[in-house]
Specification:
Blueprint: E1 2-5, E2 8-11, H1 18-33, H2 40-66, H3 74-88, H4 97-119, H5 125-143, E3 154-155, E4 161-164, E5 167-171, H6 175-198, H7 200-217, H8 222-248, E6 250-251, H9 258-271, H10 276-293, H11 296-299, H12 306-320, H13 325-343
Antiparallel strand pairs: 1-2, 3-6, 4-5
């Protein structure tokens, strides 16, 4: 559906349902309460899921909203992680979140600007291959040279903190502070993207996904819109990189690898393209499935072949749920409404 405006045609904004805002709020409240009931291991797993939720949301802006399938998204994730460690390495004091986080995200955003400016001049499979090529180039820079510690990676000397007037507000060396910082980052990312999607800019991106030629014909500079989306997505991926390196204290070239980019893409496909909630659900499902299939305590020797079992499970999910896990809820809701209509 489209609506006319003085500058062209943009995709109409769908009405906001109660589920659209109530489900994320309930989920955030539950996540906020979880640390008081979880073990240290489960808290770490929850933070990993939330970090990958940020990463999946950032790619959703490109793939699900704008229709740009990228196989190099992990490059921005890894570059921000490396920037976090390398910018703080020369310091003798604890780095501040106030400047280190924006600087790390800016490094990811700057690389996204360069990659986007060049790759967006191509389309289709050529765009996919160019983004993959740029990601692999960054991967081999860190993997095959001493820049960034080579294949072994580098460690974070001190986890950042945020202090104001001598009082420490956030100390990422504290598990609870780190947990709520990760949760806050996920909530902020979700809220930002929700606002973007409801804006004229977001509707223009949706119009590009549906029919870019029509958007061009109505006077929209689609290249500028796509580049802006690409940079925003890369910068948000940088936020995920900062969170992960703050949690684990180490970064290595695998952060930038092509299979990491593929995993992020699988998350949003598993959850359901075109949905912010679906992206987060996909990240949750993917991380938990990977954790399950790689657990020797549960599967024994079969855990050594977790890539195979995870791959077969993904194929099964995609075959049975073409709209993703979010589509399962919609299907069940729709079926319930049809039954209710027949009853009445």
């Amino acid at each position: 559906m489209a609506i006319s405006s003085t500058s062209g045609v943009v995709v109409a904004r769908p009405p906001v349902s109660r589920v659209d805002w109530l489900a994320p709020v309930i989920a955030a409240i539950i996540l906020a309460a979880l640390p008081f009931f979880l073990s240290g291991y489960m808290q770490d797993l929850s933070m990993k899921i939330m970090a990958y939720g940020i990463l999946a949301l950032s790619l959703e802006l490109l793939v699900g909203t704008t229709g740009l399938v990228s196989l190099g998204h992990a490059a921005f994730f890894g570059i921000a992680a490396y920037a976090t460690v390398m910018l703080s390495a020369p310091l003798t004091s604890t780095p501040s979140i106030g400047w280190l986080l924006p600087a790390s995200m800016a490094c990811a955003g700057l690389y996204a600007l360069v990659v986007g400016a060049l790759s967006l001049r191509t389309k289709g499979v050529y765009f996919i291959m160019v983004t993959l090529a740029f990601a692999q180039m960054a991967y081999f820079v860190f993997h095959d040279t001493n820049f960034g510690g080579g294949s072994d990676g580098i460690y974070l000397n001190a986890k950042p903190e945020l202090a104001l007037f001598g009082a420490t507000l956030i100390d990422l060396n504290d598990r609870m502070h780190l947990y709520y910082f990760t949760l806050g980052s996920l909530v902020a990312t979700y809220a930002l993207l929700a606002l973007i999607l409801r804006s004229r800019f977001g509707r223009a991106l949706s119009g590009i996904r549906v029919n870019e030629q029509r958007m061009l014909a109505t006077g929209f500079s689609t290249y500028g819109y796509k580049l802006a989306a690409f940079v925003i997505a890369g910068t948000l991926a940088g936020l995920a990189g900062f969170v992960v390196v703050a949690k684990d204290g180490v970064v290595n070239p695998e952060f930038l690898s092509w299979h990491e980019s593929g995993a992020i893409l699988l998350m949003i496909i598993l959850g359901g393209l075109g949905s912010l909630r679906g992206s987060v659900i996909g990240a949750v499902a993917f991380v938990l499935l990977k954790e399950f299939f790689s657990s020797e305590a549960i599967l024994g020797r079969l855990a050594d072949h977790w890539q195979l079992t995870l791959g077969l499970t993904m194929i099964l999910f995609v075959a049975l749920l073409p709209d993703g896990l979010i589509g399962l809820g919609r299907y069940l809701t729709g079926r319930g409404r049809r039954r209710e209509g027949k009853t009445h």
